[in-house]
Design goal:
The chain has 985 residues and is mainly alpha-helical. Helix content is 50%, strand content 5%. It has 34 helices and nine strands. The longest helix is centred in the middle third of the chain and has 32 residues. The radius of gyration is 40 Å and the shape is globular. One of its GO terms (biological process) is secondary metabolite biosynthetic process. It holds the Pfam family Fungal_trans.
Length: 985
C-alpha cells in the first residue's frame, strides 16, 4: 500500500513487520498495484479449492460406523454411496493442476479486470503529472492447447518385459520419468509468465498503454544469413529457384513444396540445414558474386560441425549432407588445388558417412521395410526417400574410391519400388517421373554394390580369383544382369540430361565390371613371364598385340567399348554449359577414369593405329567439354582436364630401348603436376605391375588397405618400384623437362640474372623478370628474348619493378604475375643481392646490417613463401638461391654480408629436407669473383684479387647461369651448395 508520502511500501518476505521503502514513479506504482491485484486473485483461487466446514460434516458417517457407507450426503441426495479404493503402497499419479483450470472462464475474467485496473490507474497517474510515460504492458500468454490423454500405466506396461539394452535406453527411460513428473506448468508458474518488464518490448508496443503481443523476427528474417545481412530474402529466393531449375532434377531430395515462394519462411524456420545446403550448391559457380558462396559455405561448415558434434537435427540434415556429397562445393574445402588430386572424393566420403550415422541415429533405417509408419504418411515417405538416398550415395562413393561400404545393415533393396516414393511422383501430365528414375538408379546401384562386393572385395580374394580364373563366371553373370537392366530401363521416358546420366551410369558399370578381367589378363601374363632380358612392358605389349586370341578377349573388348561409349555420350549428348555444368561430380570423375583407361589400353597395344587416332581425338574433345563445363580455373572440369592433357600430350622424341625395341611415345607422358613421392610399398610383389600402377593400382599392397580406382588410373604413369631402367630414364626425362614452365628471376637487369634468363628462355621457359632501378636494360632483355625465340616458343615474359627489401612490394609483384601469367612460378632463382664492402665490424652501422639481411636473406624467405604452395600443389618445383663464397669462408666484404649469405645456405639445407617429399629441389650457387656484375664490373676493378685466383681470371655470368640451368634440369640434386670460384676456397 502507499504511505502518506506517496511512496509504495512493499512487504519484505513472508512475515510482516520488516518493510522496505522504495521510490516508485507513477508508471511503477501502477505496475505494483497491478501485481497486488494478481497476487490477490491467485490467493483467492488457491483457497477456493478447500471445502467448507459444512461440506466436511456432510461426509461423516451416518450410522456411527466410520468408513462404512452410506454417508449422510448420499442419503440426503438419494445416491448410491460407494467408497473409493485405496492407493496406499502404490504409485500416486500426480495430476496436472492446469487440467482442472479453465482459462476461458476463470483466468480470462480476472485478467481483463486486472488489465482494466492497471490501465485506469496508469491513466490517472499520467493525468496527475506533466511527464508522459508509456503505459505498462502485460504479456498475455497464448491459450494452452487441449490436453491429450496419456496413459502412464500403458507406458510402464509396455516396458515391463524388457530391460535397458544400453545406456541410451536407460537415459531415455529417465527422460520419460522426468516428463511424467513435469506434465505442465502449475498455476504459480503460469502466472510468472504475466510478469515481464517493459524493457523486453519495443517502444512502439508501449506507446498507447495497451496490451500488445511481442512479435520477434521469424521465418526468413530470422534465418542466420538474412539476420546478419549477408543475404537478403530476395537473393535467397533467387538461389532457391536456381537450385530447383538446375540441380534438383539430379537428386530430388528437397520437398517440392519449398519451391513455392510462400513456403520460404517455413523453409528457413524448419529446414535450416537443407536450405543452407541448397544455397551453398546454387552459389558455387557464381564467379561474379563470390562473396555469396563464401557466406553460405561458412554457415554450412558451421552447421556440419554442429552435426558432427552431436547437435539436434532431423531428416533435413541428412538430406543436406547427401546433397553436398553429390556436388562438393569448393567453398567447403580449406583450399583448392589447381590440379585435381581426388580431394572431392575424400570430402564426399566423409559427408556420406556423417549422413549415414545421423540417419541411423534418427532411425531412418527402419523405413527400409514397409509397415505401420511411426508418423504421418508424408513424413514417413520423406524419411524412406532420405534413407534410400543414403544407401545409393554410400554404394556409389565406395565404388568410386575403392573402400568398404559405410552401411552394412539391411538396405532399401527389400522390394521398394517407385510407388514407395510418393513425393517423387508426377503431379500433372508432362512432369518428370522422378519416382521411376529413382527406382532405375536404385536397381543399378544394387548392381554396383554386388560387383564391388564380389570382384573387388579385398586384395587376397581378388588376387586369388584373378590367378585361378574364378572371376570369369562372375563377370559373365554381371554382364547379363547389366544387360537386363538396360532392357528394362534403357527406354525410360525422361528429359535429355536425366537420360544422359542413366546412360553414363550404365556405361561406367560396364567398364567397372570388365576392367577386372582386363587386369586379370595382365596379372596372368606377368606370372607366366620367363626370366629373360625382356622388360615387363615389352612382354605385355607382345602379349596384347593379338587380343583376339586371348581367353578374356570379350571382356577386354567390352571394357574398351564401354570407355569409348562413355566419352562419346559425354561429348555428343551432354551440353557442357547447360547440363554437364550442373551434374553431380561423379560424372566428371567417371569421364576421367574412362580417358585414362583408354590411355592404358592404348599403351598395351590393344588398339590398332586407326582406332588409336579416333580415341585421341575423342579424349581431346572430352578435355574441351570439361573446360567448357567449368565456371573457372578452380572448377572440377578445368582442374582434371589439365591432367588429361598432360597424360595424352605427345612427345617429339623417343628413346630407344637397350634391346633396340622401339618404344611408343605413350610412355613419355608429361607428368609435371603429378606427385613424385609415392607411399612406400611392401617388398612382396607377387602380382607384378600391370594396368594399375603401384601403389595406387587396382590392389592396395597392404592387407585390407582400400584401393582408389580413380586415382589408380590417374597416376598410372608415375615411376614406381620395380620399373625397368628404361622406365626410370623415361620418367627422368619428363621430370627434368622445363619447357613451358614459368621462372621468376630476381635482379635480372644484367649480370648473372640476365644470363640465367637467356639460358632458360632458350629452353622454352616463360619468364618473370624483376629489377630495382634499371628498367631500360630489363625491358630490352625481355624484347630481345621474345624476338629471338618467337619461331620456336611463344614465350610470355613479364617485367616487374621490385624493391626486394619490402615485403609489400614482393606481394604486389606476385599479384602482377598472377594476372599476367595466370599462375605462380614453377622455378625460383633468387638472384637479387646487395653488398657493401665494410671489412671491420665497428665500421658497420646497424642500418647497413639490417638492410643487407633484408635484401639477401629475408627477401629469399618471402619469395619462397610466395611460390611454395603452388609447387606443392603440382608436386614439382625448383628453387635456386644465389649465395656467395663469403657464406663459407667469410669473404672480404664484412661480417654483415657473410652472415646474410651464410644464412641463405643454412635456409637452403633446411628447405631441401622439408620440401623433398613434394618433389621440390632446393640448392644454392656460391659464386666468387664473377665479373660483369654489380659487385665486380670488370677484372680491373680489383686487380690484386683477380690475380690471386688459381685459374688466373674472373668468372663469367654465363658460367653461373650454366650451373643454375643444370640445377633446374636435374631434379635428383637437392640440398647442395655449389662453389663456383675458379679454385678459390
Amino acid at each position: 500500500g502507499k504511505n502518506g508520502t506517496g511512496r509504495a511500501v512493499l512487504a519484505a518476505g513472508k512475515h510482516t513487520g520488516d518493510a522496505a521503502e522504495i521510490s516508485l514513479g507513477p508508471f511503477d506504482e501502477a505496475r505494483v498495484e497491478g501485481l497486488f491485484a494478481l497476487q490477490a486473485a491467485k490467493i483467492e483461487m488457491r483457497f477456493s479449492a478447500f471445502p467448507s466446514p459444512e461440506l466436511i460434516n456432510s461426509y461423516r458417517d451416518s450410522n456411527g460406523n466410520p468408513g462404512v457407507p452410506p454417508c449422510k450426503r448420499c442419503l440426503r441426495d438419494g445416491r448410491e454411496c460407494i467408497l473409493g479404493s485405496s492407493n496406499r503402497g502404490g504409485r500416486r499419479i500426480r495430476k496436472n493442476k492446469m487440467k482442472n483450470f479453465t482459462p476461458e472462464t476463470t483466468l480470462s475474467g480476472r485478467r481483463e479486470s486486472i488489465v482494466e485496473s492497471i490501465s485506469s490507474t496508469a491513466s490517472d497517474n499520467r493525468q496527475s503529472t506533466n511527464t508522459s510515460y508509456p503505459g505498462p504492458v502485460v504479456f498475455v500468454p497464448p491459450e494452452p492447447p487441449a490436453a491429450t490423454s496419456i496413459s502412464v500405466d500403458d507406458e510402464d506396461t509396455a516396458s515391463i518385459g524388457s530391460v535397458p539394452r544400453n545406456p541410451s535406453d536407460a537415459w531415455q527411460c529417465l527422460t520419460g520419468i522426468a516428463k511424467r513428473g513435469d506434465d505442465g506448468p502449475t498455476p504459480e508458474t503460469n502466472t510468472d509468465s504475466l510478469r515481464t518488464t517493459h524493457s523486453t518490448f519495443s517502444f512502439s508496443a508501449l506507446q498507447n498503454g495497451t496490451v500488445t503481443d511481442f512479435q520477434p523476427n521469424s521465418g526468413i528474417k530470422a534465418y542466420r544469413l538474412v539476420q546478419s545481412r549477408s543475404l537478403d530474402p530476395g537473393t535467397v529466393w533467387q538461389l532457391v529457384v536456381r537450385y530447383a531449375e538446375n540441380f534438383h532434377p539430379y537428386l530430388p531430395l528437397v520437398p517440392r513444396k519449398y519451391f513455392n515462394r510462400g513456403a520460404l519462411d517455413s523453409f528457413a524456420t524448419n529446414e535450416k540445414h537443407l536450405l543452407t545446403a541448397v544455397l551453398t550448391i546454387a552459389s558455387k559457380d557464381l564467379v561474379e558474386r563470390p562473396e555469396i558462396h563464401e557466406y553460405c559455405s561458412k554457415y554450412m561448415h558451421e552447421l556440419i560441425s554442429g552435426i558432427a558434434a552431436g547437435a539436434d537435427c532431423d531428416v533435413e540434415a541428412v538430406e543436406a549432407l547427401l546433397l553436398l556429397a553429390e556436388w562438393e562445393p569448393q567453398g567447403l574445402r580449406p583450399r583448392i588445388e589447381r590440379v585435381g588430386r581426388g580431394e572431392e572424393d575424400r570430402a564426399a566420403w566423409m559427408h556420406v558417412g556423417l549422413a549415414l550415422r545421423s540417419g541411423y541415429f534418427l532411425g531412418l533405417d527402419r523405413t527400409s521395410f514397409r509397415g505401420d509408419p511411426s508418423g504421418d504418411t508424408e513424413t514417413e515417405a520423406r524419411r524412406r526417400l532420405a534413407w534410400t538416398s543414403c544407401y545409393i550415395s554410400d554404394r556409389l562413393i565406395s565404388v568410386r574410391i575403392g573402400r568398404a561400404f559405410w552401411s552394412r545393415g539391411p538396405g532399401p533393396m527389400t522390394g521398394l519400388v517407385s510407388q514407395d516414393f510418393p513425393s517423387l511422383q508426377p503431379i500433372k501430365d508432362g512432369d518428370e517421373d522422378y519416382a521411376r528414375i529413382f527406382q532405375a538408379t536404385l536397381d543399378l546401384t544394387q548392381l554396383y554394390g554386388n560387383v564391388h562386393d564380389v570382384l573387388y572385395s579385398g586384395m587376397r580374394t581378388s588376387n586369388q580369383m584373378m590367378l585361378m580364373g574364378d572371376y570369369v563366371k562372375y563377370v559373365d553373370d554381371f554382364r547379363l544382369a547389366i544387360l537386363r537392366w538396360k532392357s528394362l530401363w534403357g527406354s525410360l521416358p525422361c528429359s535429355t540430361p536425366i537420360q544422359a546420366t542413366l546412360q553414363l551410369s550404365y556405361e561406367y558399370l560396364r567398364l567397372y565390371t570388365n576392367a577386372f578381367a582386363f587386369q586379370a589378363a595382365i596379372s596372368q601374363s606377368m606370372v607366366s613371364k620367363l626370366k629373360n632380358d625382356q622388360s615387363q612392358r615389352e612382354h605385355l605389349r607382345s602379349t596384347f598385340k593379338d587380343v583376339a586370341s586371348m581367353q578374356d578377349a570379350r571382356f577386354i573388348y567390352e571394357s574398351v567399348d564401354a570407355a569409348k561409349a562413355y566419352l562419346t555420350i559425354l561429348v555428343d549428348l551432354v551440353h557442357p554449359e547447360k547440363h554437364l555444368h550442373f551434374m553431380p561430380l561423379r560424372f566428371y570423375l567417371y569421364g576421367i577414369y574412362a580417358a585414362v583407361f583408354l590411355y592404358k589400353a592404348r599403351s598395351f597395344g590393344v588398339m590398332p593405329s586407326s582406332e588409336e587416332t579416333k580415341v585421341r581425338d575423342l579424349v581431346t574433345r572430352t578435355t574441351d567439354v570439361l573446360k567448357r563445363a567449368s565456371a573457372g580455373l578452380d572448377d572440377i572440369g578445368s582442374r582434371y582436364s589439365r591432367l588429361l592433357e598432360l597424360l595424352w600430350k605427345p612427345k617429339a622424341a623417343t628413346i630407344a630401348s637397350p634391346a633396340g625395341t622401339h618404344q611408343s611415345s605413350d610412355f613419355q607422358v608429361q607428368s609435371n603436376a603429378i606427385p613424385h613421392r609415392l607411399p612406400e610399398q611392401k617388398a612382396d610383389r607377387s602380382v607384378p605391375l600391370g594396368l594399375f600402377s603401384d601403389p595406387l593400382e587396382y590392389y592396395a599392397r597392404d592387407e585390407g588397405a582400400p584401393h582408389n580406382l580413380f586415382l589408380s588410373y590417374l597416376y598410372c604413369f608415375l615411376p614406381k618400384p620395380g620399373d625397368t631402367y628404361l622406365d626410370i630414364v623415361n620418367n627422368m626425362e619428363r621430370q627434368n623437362d622445363i619447357t613451358g614452365r614459368l621462372a621468376l628471376i630476381t635482379g635480372a637487369s644484367g649480370g648473372i640474372g640476365a644470363a640465367c634468363a637467356r639460358q632458360l628462355a632458350a629452353k622454352g621457359v616463360h619468364l618473370a623478370l624483376t629489377y630495382s632501378t634499371n628498367v631500360s636494360s630489363t625491358t630490352a632483355l625481355a624484347e630481345e628474348l621474345k624476338s629471338k625465340h618467337s619461331d620456336s616458343y611463344n614465350l610470355r615474359i613479364s617485367v616487374h619493378k621490385v624493391d626486394v627489401s619490402s615485403a609489400d612490394e614482393i606481394q604486389r609483384m606476385f599479384e602482377e604475375i598472377d594476372q599476367q601469367h595466370g599462375k605462380r612460378p614453377d622455378i625460383l632463382v633468387s638472384n637479387a643481392g646487395y653488398g657493401k664492402r665494410i671489412p671491420q665490424i665497428w665500421d658497420i652501422p646497424l642500418e647497413e646490417f639490417d638492410y643487407t639481411i633484408n635484401v639477401n636473406l629475408r627477401a629469399s624467405f618471402i619469395l619462397v613463401k610466395g611460390v611454395v604452395e603452388h609447387m606443392k600443389s603440382q608436386r614439382w618445383g625448383r628453387i635456386v638461391f644465389m649465395s656467395s663464397i663469403a657464406g663459407q669462408g667469410g669473404g672480404i666484404n664484412g661480417c654483415h654480408y657473410a652472415a646474410s649469405k651464410g644464412g641463405m645456405t643454412g635456409m637452403m639445407k633446411n628447405l631441401s629436407t622439408r620440401l623433398a617429399e613434394y618433389n621440390i629441389s632446393v640448392n644454392d650457387v656460391a659464386p666468387a669473383m664473377i665479373g660483369e656484375t654489380g659487385m665486380i664490373p670488370s677484372a680491373t676493378a680489383i686487380p690484386e684479387v683477380a690475380a690471386g685466383i688459381p685459374l688466373g681470371r674472373l668468372g663469367l655470368p654465363d658460367e653461373v647461369a650454366n650451373v643454375v640451368t643444370m640445377l633446374v634440369t636435374t631434379g635428383y640434386m637437392t640440398g647442395q651448395s655449389l662453389l663456383l670460384g675458379g679454385g678459390l676456397k
